[in-house]
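Renewal narrative, Specific Aim 1. Our central claim is that a sequence can be written position by position from structural information alone. The example that follows is taken directly from our test logs and has not been curated for this report. It begins with the structure tokens describing the chain, in the order in which they were read.
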């Protein structure tokens, strides 16, 4: 039977339509299945080295995942003390720790030991926040997705570093909610420390032992630990002083490990990212992984940010001396891990973003932006240093002029004399208010005056010094003038 006769029978057109649809389906399937072309690792090296030179970064460790393989592991620069940075160098991973805490909670849920939507008081009967009624409303899911109503703005306690998870949880009795439970995303570290405490209560193990037995060991993460105080051969962490790298040993808050102080390596984190990309690799069920990666308010799932309907799954970590980024691209079948031993706030906001964006472009096969684009953290630090020197010069001259102020004040009318003294208080107070408003705008619901200032001296030490030089000498002059005037009277 020829084609013309076949069509005339009436069966030809339907069958041809079916074949056409099948062909379209095959082409479409192939189009979706075809992976992004493999990354050019020489180009990747060039991008990272150029960014390190631009910003003066001490060391970088990188891992790239393509398909089901760790395709590239590389270290750049120094880990301190004459050691080369490698993909096996240990570093703090900051808030990336939250994803491990969330995974541990998910495992305990699947084991029937926790219920995501049960109030925290079901498992910790004495759990309290400032408002008794709100205390009973907060569930495990709320803590996982940062929708408990708790925030840094409503919690001003500065805990000793050796506080336990239980002591940290009890301290929330002093925390007031800044939003109704379940209505707003407010990133709150201590909520994940409560989850870490729940891991201990419901598993009967310490938090560190649980992660070792149920996550690190199964994934072969042999250089990872939730006991950072015992970690050996960690990279030297750095902050900055006026653009120059300054080594700093970061204090480890015992109570804050589930939220931000797990130790790992680029290679270990690549194993972890690969497991997360592959439905949990048996650590939890695929159904639970879908819950983990289901975004709630502000695109936050359980310990992960989920963007573009799942095209990008990521989290990061920002310690005082380290930076971590884990980016997973399920549709492109790609992922990368980036660890940096520099934790100045300018680096978290500027250099980390530039180097992360450059890596993303190469990994996803896109054209890279010129390295010259964007601010240089090194130059920003030098500018702060120059401003500090200029300000110190004028403030020093003002203090030296106090020696003749008593004589000069004798010839000043009372109005001018009062104004002269008032300016010594008004100017620095106005500067302080302006700076604090800017800081509050940046931190949002994580801002609380004393904890923020306490942290600022560590994450922005040079800017903190600039603030002190900008205001303290003026207050000293004001009190000196008041004291001198009182003695004269």
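The sequence written for that structure reads:
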């Amino acid at each position: 039977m020829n084609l013309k006769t076949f069509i005339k029978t009436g069966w030809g057109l339907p069958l041809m339509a079916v074949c056409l649809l099948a062909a379209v389906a095959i082409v479409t399937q192939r189009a979706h299945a075809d992976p992004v072309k493999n990354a050019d690792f020489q180009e990747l090296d060039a991008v990272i080295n150029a960014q390190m030179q631009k910003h003066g970064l001490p060391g970088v460790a990188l891992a790239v995942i393509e398909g089901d393989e760790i395709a590239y592991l590389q270290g750049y620069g120094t880990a301190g003390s004459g050691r080369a940075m490698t993909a096996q160098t240990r570093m703090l991973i900051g808030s990336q720790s939250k994803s491990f805490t969330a995974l541990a909670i998910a495992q305990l849920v699947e084991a029937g030991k926790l219920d995501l939507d049960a109030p925290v008081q079901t498992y910790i009967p004495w759990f309290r926040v400032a408002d008794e009624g709100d205390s009973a409303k907060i569930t495990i899911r709320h803590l996982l997705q940062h929708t408990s109503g708790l925030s840094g703005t409503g919690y001003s306690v500065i805990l000793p570093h050796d506080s336990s998870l239980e002591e940290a949880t009890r301290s929330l009795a002093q925390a007031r909610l800044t939003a109704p439970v379940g209505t707003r995303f407010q990133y709150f570290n201590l909520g994940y420390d409560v989850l870490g405490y729940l891991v201990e209560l419901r598993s009967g193990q310490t938090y560190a032992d649980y992660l070792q037995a149920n996550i690190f060991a199964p994934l072969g993460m042999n250089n990872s630990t939730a006991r950072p105080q015992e970690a050996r051969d960690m990279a030297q962490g750095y902050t900055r002083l006026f653009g120059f790298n300054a080594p700093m040993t970061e204090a480890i808050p015992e109570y804050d490990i589930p939220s931000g102080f797990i130790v790992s390596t680029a290679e270990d984190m690549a194993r972890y990212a690969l497991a997360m990309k592959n439905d949990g690799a048996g650590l939890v069920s695929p159904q639970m992984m879908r819950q983990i990666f289901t975004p709630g308010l502000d695109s936050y799932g359980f310990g992960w940010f989920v963007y573009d309907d799942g095209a990008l799954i990521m989290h990061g970590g920002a310690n005082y001396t380290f930076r971590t980024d884990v980016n997973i691209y399920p549709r492109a079948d790609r992922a990368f891990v980036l660890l940096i031993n520099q934790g100045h706030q300018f680096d978290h906001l500027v250099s980390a973003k530039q180097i992360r964006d450059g890596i993303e472009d190469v990994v996803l096969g896109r054209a890279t932006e010129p390295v010259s684009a964007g601010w240089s953290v090194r130059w920003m630090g030098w500018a702060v240093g120059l401003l500090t020197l200029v300000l110190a010069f004028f403030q020093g001259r003002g203090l030296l002029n106090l020696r003749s102020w008593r004589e000069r004040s004798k010839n000043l009318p009372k109005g001018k004399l009062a104004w002269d003294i008032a300016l010594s208080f008004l100017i620095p107070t106005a500067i302080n208010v302006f700076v604090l408003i800017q800081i509050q705008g940046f931190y949002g619901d994580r801002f609380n005056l004393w904890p923020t200032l306490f942290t600022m001296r560590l994450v922005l030490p040079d800017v903190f010094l600039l603030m002190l030089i900008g205001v303290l000498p003026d207050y000293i002059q004001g009190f000196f003038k008041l004291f001198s005037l009182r003695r004269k009277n």
